[in-house]
Design brief:
The complex is a heterodimer.
Chain A (H helix, E strand, L loop, with lengths): L7 H13 L19 E16 L13 E4 L4 E9 L6 E11 L9 E13 L2 E9 L16 H4 L16 E11 L3 E10 L14 E9 L12 E9 L9 E13 L4 E13 L9 H6 L2 E12 L7 E12 L7 E13 L2 E12 L1 H7 L3 E17 L9 H6 L5
Antiparallel strand pairs in A: 1-2, 1-3, 1-17, 3-4, 4-5, 5-6, 6-7, 7-8, 8-9, 9-10, 10-11, 11-12, 12-13, 13-14, 14-15, 15-16, 16-17
Chain B lengths: L17 E3 L57 E16 L2 E8 L5 E7 L3 E8 L8 E3 L23 E7 L4 E6 L4 H6 L3 E7 L4 H5 L4 E10 L1 H21 L3 H6 L11 H9 L5 H5 L11 E4 L10 E3 L4 E8 L5 E5 L4 E6 L2 E9 L1 E4 L4 E7 L5 E6 L16 E6 L18
Parallel strand pairs in B: 2-5, 4-9, 10-13, 12-20
Antiparallel strand pairs in B: 1-2, 2-3, 5-7, 6-8, 8-9, 10-11, 13-18, 14-17, 14-19, 15-16, 15-18, 19-20
Classes of the chains: A mainly beta, B mainly beta.
């Protein structure tokens, strides 16, 4: 795992070196590009810092007890994207590179840096092809918790090759994917993935170990607030777990966003997702990894109120809950709740707070070292996006959605 | 045939044009106009006393010849037109297409050409998810017909129709454009020529001509237009959805659109949490408009249409500053006469080889066929002679002599776009 956890300073020093040695080329380029024509460059980022109080104290996988309070800046990320119009066959070509902070217990400092996005993308009106590392292809519904990895064992199909040391391993994978669409509203995704493997040190850590297909509907972005069902989807995934570890897992998942009160000022929405896995015959947990592999059912549900005076988001309150049970492992249920509040202070800058509670039944608690968790966080979140040399429109812009023109 | 580069008396084929004499149907929106007393006897032709140069100075010449708040009377000519606005793809150059708001699916919009004093009735229908108007730039219309959204009329929404009715005056070269979100909508193609002909035109008397050309000069920031049109589509889509929900209609009231009944209302809304868009943009840097294509009648060189002339012929060229930048049109190998400005005949023609055409202005020139060949006619502000930063291109065309061969000029034009 440590091979992709690069220290920030090391990366910055590499970038700085590149900047001051303009004649140096990092890689051989088979067909040189026309000098002087700059691509579109997008710089996105999110910084999140909270003071966190937790009881009982967290325990690392090696048994080390963590302190009750800590400063948590995990899930902060910086992304660099480069895109250009392809003038020969049409379409858009792009490359994205990004890293996110983790609260990995694999790292002695409790904080790591994960290269979570590194992919190339080719898109034409009818399809998109992606190669590299990005969000797992099974990611369906985003829940309104503070961090994307909060309650992840309920909100996402899990990575059965993760040791549990880094929760972000459930969110990103190496993949080859093709997504076909109809009218840029209906999407069929076919993919093969390498789910990050941190448990089988020394074995095949790069091979394809998961395959799947998903179908998804997304409404035009402008109508997110006011259509009843702006988003829904279903998917199937086959995870190739070795027979010695319980055998392959078949995962079915489905989710939707339902606007209880479709309203541009006071939107209230419900998010619902179920992840059902079967086929694996594990009946006991000997490690955290087994909890990701055993046949289980997870359901996640959130209720969110977004208040946007005069149409501009002002604050958001959300209650998210999750429940997970195992078919073959007795006394292994777990559930969790997260109450999240976000107050917008200005362009992309928010004051945030979250209380979470999780209960684990005995069999499930054993590998995690505790049956209950309480945590409270208070802090700031800042997200931004900036585009330089802007010359490409968004793929799912309304112009493209309504008129099916070639994205430009 | 491009209506912008044709001979005179081009009737507007693009429109559902119907002329009738006698009683004219009055538009509902203009009923109030009847309340004012019309001028019983219009003043003389705006050019009648100026049918030759030098033109006599008349301090009251800016007074409309007919009272603008008059209504059509029995026996007067009323031209009826239908103008629709659609979202289309417009090709500036091969491999360069932009989204455009187009009057009758044309960029620029169709040419209006009428006699001074005729009545114009236009049914303006909006097929886009945005708001629009038509401002009759330079025409002495009644205030309600001026096309300023929330100033003189409510903007025309999706699938709504507004009827404009006014008398064509004064004579000269004018134009029309959308006055809603003008920086976006004009770049997106909402402009066109409006030519009012006079029976006593000193230009024609002094420089007899058969062929004339209308060149609308404009520029576009294709990236700005794309992003802003998207934003407007988004708002339009929401409004369409709202139409089916009285509750949403109440929530998404004018204040969410940034519309307020008074300054006091606006200030109160700010106190209640409304964040004006300029306050939001002041929190950081917003990219300014940076035009990257420069056009004559919606096309950039080498796709611009040529002007044609013969030795000894006069041609009239009507230049319209439809965009947001001044342009300095230079003709190679010739001097020409500046004869009209903003539709009005100059006191005396002025000789130039380069003439500024400012935003919102119209400039008429007469070119005389004195030097056979094929000659460049282009904006001498060289930044406008580029296509997306690459020269040559942009606001450039050619003056082509039809009889150049007979005069011994054998050079064949080459389209040079470089590699």
């Amino acid at each position: 795992m440590k091979n992709y956890q690069l220290p920030v300073l090391c990366m910055l020093s590499i970038l700085a070196t590149a900047a001051i040695t303009p004649n140096a080329r990092a890689q051989h380029t088979p067909i040189p590009a026309q000098p002087g024509i700059a691509p579109q460059i997008e710089l996105d980022g999110v910084g999140i810092g909270t003071i966190e109080l937790r009881t009982p104290r967290n325990t690392l996988t090696d048994g080390t007890k963590l302190s009750t309070g800590r400063i948590n800046f995990s899930d902060s990320a910086l992304l660099l994207g480069v895109s250009e119009r392809l003038y020969r066959q049409g379409g858009i070509g792009s490359f994205v590179l990004g890293a996110t902070t983790t609260d990995s217990s694999l790292n002695g400092t409790g904080t790591g840096l994960l290269l979570h996005q590194l992919y190339l993308n080719y898109s034409i009106p009818s399809l998109e092809a992606t190669l590299g590392r990005t969000d797992t292809a099974t990611r369906l519904i985003d829940f309104p918790t503070l961090r994307g990895d909060d309650l992840v064992e309920f909100t996402a199909p899990l990575d059965p090759f993760s040791s549990g040391g880094d929760i972000q391993e459930h969110r990103y994978s190496n993949q080859a994917a093709v997504t076909f669409n109809s009218k840029l509203r209906y999407f069929v995704n076919l993919h093969a993935q390498h789910l990050l493997n941190s448990v089988d040190a020394g074995s095949d850590q790069t091979g394809l170990n998961s395959y799947g297909i998903s179908f998804r509907y997304m409404s035009p972005p402008a109508l997110d607030d006011i259509t009843r069902i702006p988003e829904w989807g279903v998917g199937y995934e086959r995870q190739e777990i070795p027979a010695s570890h319980g055998g392959a897992n078949n995962v079915l998942y489905a989710g939707m966003v339902y606007n209880i009160n479709p309203d541009p000022v006071d939107r209230v929405d419900l998010r619902l997702q179920d992840v059902y896995s079967t086929g694996n015959n594990l009946a006991t947990f000997t490690s955290i990894t087994d909890t990701y592999r055993a046949a289980a059912n997870s359901i996640a549900l959130s209720l969110r109120w977004l208040h946007s005076p005069f149409g501009t988001p002002g604050f958001q309150v959300a209650l998210t809950g999750g429940y997970r049970s195992y078919q073959s492992v007795p006394r292994s249920d777990t559930f969790a709740l997260a109450l999240t509040g976000i107050k917008n202070l200005g362009q992309g800058f928010d004051l945030v707070a979250q209380y979470t509670f999780q209960y684990r039944a005995a069999a499930y608690a054993a590998p995690f070292g505790g049956s209950t968790d309480n945590s409270f966080q208070l802090g700031f979140l800042y997200n931004f996006t900036n585009t330089f040399n802007h010359h490409l429109g968004a793929r799912r812009s309304l112009l493209n959605l309504q008129h099916q023109y070639i994205p430009d | 045939m491009n209506l912008y580069s044709n001979t005179i008396m081009n009737t507007a084929k693009f429109m559902n044009r119907r002329r009738f004499l006698g009683q004219a149907a009055a538009a509902a929106g203009t009923a109030a106009l009847c309340t004012q007393q019309a001028n019983a006897n219009p003043s003389s032709d705006s050019n009648a006393e100026n049918s030759s140069w030098p033109v006599r100075f008349q301090p009251d010449a800016t007074r409309p010849r007919w009272y603008p708040r008059d209504m059509p009377k029995a026996g007067e000519v009323v031209h009826e037109y239908k103008i629709e606005i659609d979202l289309i793809r417009h090709e500036i150059l091969p491999m360069v297409e932009t989204y455009a708001y187009a009057y009758n699916k044309m960029v620029p919009g169709p040419v209006f050409r009428v006699k001074e004093g005729d009545w114009i009735k236009v049914d303006f229908h909006n097929n886009t998810h945005d708001f629009h108007t038509i401002h009759w730039h330079g025409i002495e219309v009644p205030c309600e017909m001026d096309g300023v959204p929330l100033g003189t009329q409510y903007p025309v929404g999706y699938q709504q129709t507004f009827q404009y009715l006014f008398r064509a005056q004064p004579a000269g070269t004018h134009y029309y454009h959308c006055h809603n979100m003008t920086p976006l909508h004009v770049q997106a193609g909402m402009y066109g020529a409006f030519i009012v002909e006079s029976d006593n035109d000193p230009v024609k008397a002094m420089f007899p001509y058969e062929r004339e050309y209308t060149l609308a000069l404009s520029e576009i920031d294709t990236n700005y237009v794309r992003e802003q049109l998207n934003a407007m589509q988004q708002m339009g889509e929401v409004m369409d959805y709202m139409n089916g929900s009285p509750k949403l209609m109440e929530k998404m009231n004018g204040k969410m659109m940034g519309w307020f009944a008074s300054r006091e209302d606006f200030v109160q809304a700010v106190k209640n949490g409304y964040i004006p868009p300029y306050a939001q943009s002041m929190s950081g840097y917003v990219r300014p408009i940076q035009p990257n294509f420069f056009m004559i009648n919606g096309k950039s060189y080498p796709m611009t249409d040529h002007l044609h002339i013969r030795s000894g012929e006069n041609i009239r060229v009507r230049l319209i500053g439809a965009g947001m930048m001044p342009h300095f049109m230079h003709l190679h190998g010739h001097d020409f006469w500046h004869v009209c400005q903003d539709g009005a005949v100059l006191a005396s023609p002025i000789r130039h080889n380069t003439i500024p055409v400012y935003p919102g202005c119209t400039t008429d020139i007469v070119i005389q066929g004195t030097n056979p060949g094929c000659w460049h006619f282009h904006d001498h502000s060289d930044i406008s002679n580029m296509n997306n930063g690459v020269s040559p291109g942009g606001m450039m065309t050619m003056l082509m002599y039809d009889d150049a061969e007979q005069a011994g000029f054998h050079f064949k034009e080459i389209i040079a776009v470089n590699t």
